[in-house]
């Protein structure tokens, strides 16, 4: 439930309310607004049922959160979450574009997309070193060697890096190299991984599962938040439908829906969302028009020989042209790129 405190309380007064909540075996998560503080009491709310917390000093009112997810809900926090990463702010006015190859293939290959992507305005470098492949015989990624190439590209370009962690056993290793951890669509409901990522407290991008409802998506984000990590970026990357012209069906309405239901930043991945390079730019433009806070885009200098997802990767030149168009759409909706 949400415990709304009276305005302008002193830190000692807030502390007493928190101790009271915790004495019922509930966890208190704090959201500080300009005037007042809201405390999310998380756990079995029945424990609080017949205790009248409302009459406790400093408490203004106690409200149930009706959604099954709590900490990530707009009810708990009205203002947008802004995540600070290496001096960049995700979730603010600026739209961030994370670009790079699907898989890290070699030291040079990463730089061949990282350098032009940065030049065109990308602010984060993406690239997979641990790849979730449908077939066990497909390229599985370079592992730590790939992480090392990403770190090298970060040094050369200055761009922070985002890379996927597939398995809780690799978490420490991947976290040592990355600025943002990516939890992929196939792992959206790997609850053990979500819990571990939550404990770590590093920014994380959670991608929507292939067949996940929005509610399931937000409940997965709640797993991370419940461990104390609120630096979560939600990413819609297409869902599975009966349509076969595209690899997935990109659910663009997820942007305004997620924005209504949650305070977390929302990204769109039009590369996996469509599976076709020729559809990436139109969907990226539409995503920004719909209110997305950022984009995740696959870029490869030579998609014909890419070890994964070549057909949906943009060549650097096409990426740069898309960025120019994005600037105009962003300006039209009061954002910048
Ligand atoms: C990726 O970003 O390369 C990836 C594997 O994405 P998803 O988990 O959305 O399929
Ligand atoms: Mn990919």
In short:
The protein has 337 residues and is α/β, with parallel strands linked by helices.
Polypeptide structure, described:
The chain is of the alpha/beta class. The chain has helices spanning 11-22, 107-120, 144-157, 171-177, 191-200, 214-226, 254-261, 270-274, 277-289, 316-332, and strands at 2-5, 27-32, 37-42, 59-63, 83-85, 88-90, 96-100, 124-126, 161-164, 180-183, 204-207, 232-236, 266-268, 294-298. Helix 2 (107-120) packs parallel to helix 3 (144-157) and helix 2 packs parallel to helix 10. It folds into 2 domains: 2-63, Phospho-2-dehydro-3-deoxyheptonate aldolase, domain 1 (Alpha-Beta Plaits, 2-Layer Sandwich), CATH 3.30.70; 83-332, Aldolase class I (TIM Barrel). Manganese (II) ion (MN) is lined by residues 102, 272, 298, 308-309. Phosphoenolpyruvate binds at residues 102, 128, 132, 184-186, 207, 237, 269, 272.
List the keywords.
TIM Barrel; alpha/beta; 2 domains; eight-stranded parallel barrel; 10 helices; four-stranded antiparallel β-sheet; Alpha-Beta Plaits; 337 residues; binds phosphoenolpyruvate; binds manganese (II) ion
């Amino acid at each position: 439930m949400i415990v709304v405190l009276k305005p302008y309380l002193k830190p000692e007064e807030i502390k007493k309310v928190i101790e009271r909540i915790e004495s019922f075996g509930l966890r208190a998560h704090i959201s500080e607004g300009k005037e007042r503080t809201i405390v999310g009491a998380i756990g079995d709310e029945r424990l609080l049922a017949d205790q009248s917390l409302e009459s406790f000093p400093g408490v203004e009112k106690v409200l149930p959160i009706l959604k099954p997810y709590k900490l990530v809900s707009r009810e708990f926090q009205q203002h947008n979450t802004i995540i600070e990463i290496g001096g960049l702010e995700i979730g603010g006015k600026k739209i961030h574009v994370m670009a790079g190859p699907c898989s890290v293939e070699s030291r040079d290959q990463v730089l061949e997309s990282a350098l032009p992507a940065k030049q065109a305005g990308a602010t984060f470098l993406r690239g997979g070193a641990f790849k979730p492949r449908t077939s066990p015989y497909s390229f599985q990624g370079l592992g730590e060697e790939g992480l090392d190439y990403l770190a090298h590209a970060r040094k050369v370009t200055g761009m922070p890096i985002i890379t996927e962690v597939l398995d809780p056993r690799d978490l420490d290793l991947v976290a040592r190299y990355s600025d943002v951890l990516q939890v992929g669509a196939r792992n959206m409901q790997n609850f053990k991984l979500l819990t571990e990522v939550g404990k770590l407290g590093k920014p994380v991008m959670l991608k929507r599962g292939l067949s996940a409802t929005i509610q399931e998506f937000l409940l997965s984000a709640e797993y991370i938040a419940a461990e104390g990590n609120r630096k979560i970026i939600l990413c819609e990357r297409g869902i599975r439908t009966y349509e076969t012209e595209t690899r997935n069906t990109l659910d663009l309405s997820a942007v305004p829906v997620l924005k209504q239901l949650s305070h977390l930043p929302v990204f769109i991945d039009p590369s996996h969302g469509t599976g076709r390079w020729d559809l990436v730019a139109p969907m990226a433009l539409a995503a920004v028009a719909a209110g997305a806070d950022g984009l995740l885009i696959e870029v490869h200098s030579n998609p014909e020989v890419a070890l994964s997802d070549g057909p949906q990767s943009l060549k650097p030149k096409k990426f740069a042209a898309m960025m120019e168009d994005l600037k105009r759409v962003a300006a039209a909706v009061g954002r910048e790129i």
